[in-house]
Structures are given as C-alpha cells and as structure tokens.
Amino acid sequence: MSGKRTTVGVLLVALVLCARAQPEREPVTIERPMRIGLSLSGGAALGLAHIGVLKVLERESIPFVAISGTSMGSLVGGLYAAGYSALQIESLALNADWDRLFSSAVPFGAQYLPERQQAQRYVLRLRHKNLIPSLPGGMVPLQNVEFLLMQLLSNIGYNTGFDLDSLPIPYRAAAVDLKSGRLVVMRKVRLEQAIRASIAIPGVFAPEKLGDMELVDGGVQWLLPVDALDSVDVDLDLRIAVLTMKHNPETGVSLIDVTSRSMDLVSPGELERQKERADVLIEPNVDPFTHSDFTKAAGLMAAGESAAEAALPRIRELTDGRALSRHRNVVVPRPASVVRTVRFEGLRVTREGTIRGELSTRQGDLLRFGRLIDDLTRLFNTGLFENVNYRLEPVGGDSVDVVIEVDERPYGFYSLGLRYDIAGRLALGLEVGQGNLGGSGAGVRMALDLGNPNEVRLGLTGTRLFRLPFGYRLDGYAGSVDRSYYEQGRRQGVYTVGYRGGVGEAGYVVGRDAFFVFGLNGYRATYAVVGSLRDSLRAEWVVGPSFRFEENTFRDVDFPTAGTESRLELRSSVSAMRGTRQFARVSYSHQRVLPVSSWLLLRPGLDVGASFGELAWAEQFRTGGAEFVGFEPDEFTSAQRAVVRFGADLRLFRLFGEEDYPVYAQLIGNVGTFAPWSDLLAIPNVPSLLHWGVGVGARTNTPIGPVQLVVGAGDFGLRPAGWPATVAFFFSVGREFRYTK
C-alpha cells in the first residue's frame, strides 16, 4: 500500500516539474472585424453612378456598417441602408418614369376631364394671390418623388421607430436649413422625409418643411458628407467615399444642370477636406453626362461600375485579408397602431368637408400605410394643394393620431394661349380665374379668345356636386366664327356664325382614363351670309340635352406618341325646349398611336357622324385641313360623314436633344364620304361618292406647343377641268385652347 502511495507521489512531482519546464504562452488576442463606412455625394442624375458602385462592392462582399449621403447620394444610400439590394435599386432607376416623377400634373383620369384638358392646352399658366403673381418655391415639384419614397420606405421607417440608427444599416442624410443657414445631419426623422429634404436643389425643387426648418439639398454646403459618418455611434476603420462630379464644362441647359453645377463650385476647400477624410475615394467618370440625364441611368451606372472595379485593388490592400464586420440591425415588425383621430393641418381656405371624403383612413382603423398613401395621392390630385404629407403622433398604448399636413396653393390663375393655323389665323387666348371659392373646390373663370373664333366666356367649374364625386361646369358664352363655304369643291366665300348661349354639364370618371358627361346646351346662332346661302339660313335656337363619353390614354393631348383616344358624342335640339329645329347628332371618333419602334409610329383613325331630323347649320360636320388631308379646311360641310385615315410617323431627330421634342416626318392617307346614308345603300354608286387624299408632312413638339405642316393632294385626276388645284396646305403651331361649347 505504501509502495502505491510512493509511486503516485513521484508521478505528481514529475508532472509539476514538467509544467514548470514548459515556456510561458503569449495571451491570445482576437482582432475585431473591420468596420467600413460609405459616403455618397450629390450630383443630381450623376448620382445614379452610385448604384453601379454598390453593385460591384456588393458582388465583392464588401459590407458597410454606416452610410451617409447628400442629394442623390442620400436617395441611393437611404434605399440601401433600408435593406434594398443594389439590383433592386438599379431596377427602380431603369424603370422609373422620370418625367412623371418630376411633374405635378394630375393623372389623366383623376380629375374632371375638361379641367384636365384645360390645364394642358395653355402655353403659360401663372398663379396669383389677390391678383398678385405668386412664384413657386421650386420650379420642379417633388410630390410624386415623395409618394414613391413613401411607398418604398414607410413600413421600415415605422418598424424602426423613425430612428435612422435602427435601420439595417445606420444612416445619415445631410441637408441645409434655409432659415438659419445651418447644416443639418438628420437622424430622428422619417427616412423618406430625410431623403426628400436632402434632394431639394434650391430654386429647382421646393424645400421640405420639417418642424420649424425649411430644408434643402445638403450639397449647398456638403457635396460629399464624409464627416456625417462621425455622428453614427460606430468606430469606423475604413471610410469609402464616392464622388460624382463633373470635371469638364457643363453642357446641359436645364435648370437642374445650371443649379447643380453651381453647387459643385461652392466651397471647394470643404470638398477637398472631405475627400482627404476618405481612405478610398471612388470617382466615376460622369463627364459625358449632364446633371439632368436621369433617362441615361444605364450609362451612369456603368460608369460607377468601372470606377468601383478600378478601386478594388486599393480596398483589398487596406482590408489586407481582415474579417469585415457584417453586422446588420434586425428589424422586427411592430404591431399596427390604431388610428385614434385623423386631422388636417394647413387648411386656411379649403373647408375640411370638401376633402374629407377623399380619405379612406378613418378613426378606429388599423394604420395601413398603403391606404394612407393612396389618401394623400387623392388629396394631391384634387389640384388644391402644392404639397401633402403626414405626421404620426403617438398617444399612448398602441394608438396614433394621423396628422395630414397640406400646403395650399394660390388659387388664382392667369392662363395664356397662342396658336396659329390656316383656318383660324392667329389666335390669342387669355383666361383669368379664381379657384376654390369659399373653400368648396369650385372655381370661376373668364376666358377671352381673339382670332377665329372671337369669344368671351364666363364659367364655373368644380370637382364635387352635392358631395358626390361628379365634376361639373356651368358656362355662359358669346362669340363669332368665320367659315368658308364650298359648292362642288369650289370656294364660294366666307360666312360668319354668331352665337350666344350657355352649357351645363356634370360628369364622372370611369376607371383611370375614361369619362362620361351629361349636359344641357342651349344657344342662338345667327348667320351673316353672302351668295347662295343667304335665303336658306336664318337665325335659329339649338337647345337640348347632350352626352359625351371619352376614353383617352394620351399623355399629351396635343402631341401623342402612344395611346388611344375614343370619343362618342350626342348633341340634340328639342322643339319642346324651344329649339328651332329638332334633331339628334351622333359622332364617334377613334385614333390610335402605335409605337412600332423608337423611330416609327403608326396612326390609324376613324371619324363617323350621322344626324337624324333637320340638323341646324351651326351643327353641321365640317371636314378638311389636317384632319382630312388633301382638302382645304371646311371644304366638306355635311349632315353625315365617314372618314378612315392612316398615317406613319418616322422620327428623324430631337429638338434640343430632348426626349419631349421629337421631329417626325409623316406619310398620310385618308378616304371619306359625306353623302347621305341612303345614297350609300346603292352599293354600285359608292365608289363615286368617295373622296380620297394622300399627303406628306412634318410635326414636332416645342415649348410653345406642337408644330405641324402637311402638304396633300385630294381626288387628283378626278376633278373636272377648271376646278381648284388638287394640292392643299395646312400649317399650325401652338396648343388648341379654344372651347367648343
């Protein structure tokens, strides 16, 4: 037993001696992963190159733990910080309708159709307050951009408690307060508001109001906001900055180009300091582009990819094989809050009852951002507000008050129209009005048209009728129009139609692009006639109901490049309503613009009209000119017509290099008949009753409206000897602003 104890003791001594003989080990140090921050500059459209940089860095598995941005950098960086991938952001940029985003135009089917068309047809429209012209805070609105950002970011903003540090990647946006001149780095704010403020180029876009501040583009002071990364509570080991700035002269001429370039030149010393703070500076070559080249997103993103590829060796050198921090904040969805109240802020003229019906978000509902954004869109589409936004106020528990913030526009307006064509000569239109009378949304206007016709009109329009979603108009008018009179293709002279009367209409939007109107029209027509018409035309009253249905998907009513327009109209005069004659006049027109390719448009069309009873002379169909190529304006005056036409437009180039101003060469053909329908039943005689013409022309759009020149020949080889020449010219410039009762 004692031997065993001795053996155990020896072994223990040996183990102790061995342990003392081992060399002492160094303490193990575990190096923390490297933390990388990303700062993205401004640059308007040039900032789309940031997306290409993100694509490359994402592909190379280079993560970020903090992001800052200014202007377009704030938009791209904010989306990325919210969890959108580089490919998703690329898809948004490539598929965005930039014209729509930068427009305040109400969608075609969102308003009473005559109001929508009225807004498009004048070349100049200014707003006034108490007859004093009012200039907008920004020339280009950003409401539609803000709506898009709300759709993309509202839910994640809500789930992160509107704290930019709680996004998947902590984020900062830079802006400048116009009131104080102070640079503002935003954190506790709705993400879409932070981005909207940071992209508001002063003088181009209206400021974003946030509390007492009026925030504009951070590029005014900080084109490259590397220092903004310091406000994120993370110790960064590496800062990567991306600068999208032109180094050659600016070639763009738009307001965005000029203002953005001016901002690039402000505070060059500060820009150099920010560049020095970056460990890696990536500068895409954006010299071939302009600040307004939003439609060239693919080229700008390619420039960003090339620059990022060139920077990869330097990034790998600085990371030197170290592990990179891939930390992301986990965003846990919050339960939907209950809406305690919905109230408005900013209503000074508009009565709450006028717009309350636009809201589907109501007290006691669960807060749904999709529904709320739809509500805001409908409010904006009323045309009553420059800007609409929302604010959420927690009231304890799981409830919130929804505050809808509106910025009322000046409701007075001046509109100016200018047009010349062969038939109407030089026409000048002036319209003065006051909208939102008594906060009701209704508007009153007076229009004066000089030329052919000469007309004065006083009217009332609105978008609500007894709280129903019906648009309406009530117009009184008086005027005169000169028309040419033809017999058997020979021009006999000119006669004048004088008219005075009124019209009342109520209509309703059907779907997005269709509209129907019921109305009552009454006017007295007088005729100043020479020649053979003298004995047949006497003053007459036209009084009766009317109906119109229109479907229109043209983005530009006067210069369509795609879409369809169909119009069915019924006019009548009823003797029981003191009409001189009793008749019904039905017309249907259809035209379509088919973009076969980027350079070719096909334009089929159809016009059909018929009358029943004794049609008043003032209501006759008048055909010719641009709508019936090869013939003079008014050459056919008839109680019925059927015209089929076809055209092909070949795009040659763009004026000013702009997408909105294409120049097309035109090939046109049409055939029509104006004989009574009973004559057409004798089928063998139909060929002799047809008139046909072909022509060539050119058309383009300009800042003052469309320009069109058409040269055509009609019925050539068929006219008797001594008839007028078969060649007919038509020329017009400007938008059509004149009313048609």
Topology of this structure?
Elements: H1 2-21, E1 36-40, H2 49-59, E2 66-70, H3 72-81, H4 86-95, H5 98-101, H6 113-121, E3 124-129, E4 132-134, E5 138-140, H7 143-159, E6 171-177, E7 183-186, H8 191-198, E8 203-205, E9 208-210, E10 213-217, E11 238-242, H9 255-264, H10 268-277, E12 280-282, H11 297-319, E13 338-345, H12 352-355, H13 369-381, E14 385-394, E15 399-408, E16 412-421, E17 425-434, E18 443-450, E19 454-462, E20 471-487, E21 490-510, E22 514-528, E23 540-552, E24 563-573, E25 583-595, E26 600-602, E27 605-613, E28 621-623, E29 636-638, E30 641-654, E31 662-673, H14 677-680, E32 690-700, E33 707-714, E34 727-733
Parallel strand pairs: 1-2, 1-11, 2-6, 5-8, 11-12, 13-15
Antiparallel strand pairs: 3-4, 3-16, 6-7, 6-10, 9-10, 14-15, 16-17, 16-34, 17-18, 18-19, 19-20, 20-21, 21-22, 22-23, 23-24, 24-25, 25-26, 25-27, 26-30, 27-30, 28-29, 30-31, 31-32, 32-33, 33-34
How would you describe this structure in keywords?
14 helices; eight-stranded mixed sheet; 34 strands; alpha+beta; 19-stranded antiparallel sheet; about 750 residues
